[in-house]
Amino acid sequence: GCRQVTAQRSLYHDRPTHRQLPSQPQVVLEWALMPSFSWNSADTNLISTAVAPGVALTSSIFFTSGLQARFTSITGRGRDLAREARLIRTPKDDFERRRIQSIRHQIDRFLFRVALAHRAIMMGYGGTLAFGLTMLVLLSDGFLNLKFGGGLAVSCFAAGLGMMVLAVITSLREVSIARVTVEDDVRSSLDGV
Question: What is d(CA 172, CA 178) in angstroms, rounded to the nearest whole number?
Fold first, then answer.
């Protein structure tokens, strides 16, 4: 159960929890079966410190999900080109010969783009894991007072940040190759039209 206790000050702190008029006592509920638990500003700092990498974790999850969608799109388009090449198998005219040659170039680029997208996804997962480890180390340090907790947390966060930067750079490289591939596809498709 729970019983009411009338007090001028909070049960957990030496100072009032809010401004009170001198004539009005503060009513506090005290749980009879629960042990006394003190919540201080160091605890809230611990939580806010652990939540900061959580924002990075969430961002890396969204970014990696976007990379996976892009990877699926790239592989789907590569399969479509391979299907088109199988249908043309023996070119009947100059247009089909140029189209087959264009498809070969595009498939080479698609394979390179797939490799870049795969690397970016793996780096995104690495960054996500590092941000998760950062949160775990910070929380563990708060409860266990680890000897190298702060340095380990900073190292994990820096590793996650580095992996995400590399994932972005790799993704930018893939996107620049995509532009060239699309230009080649459009030119070869409209050639002679």
Answer: 10
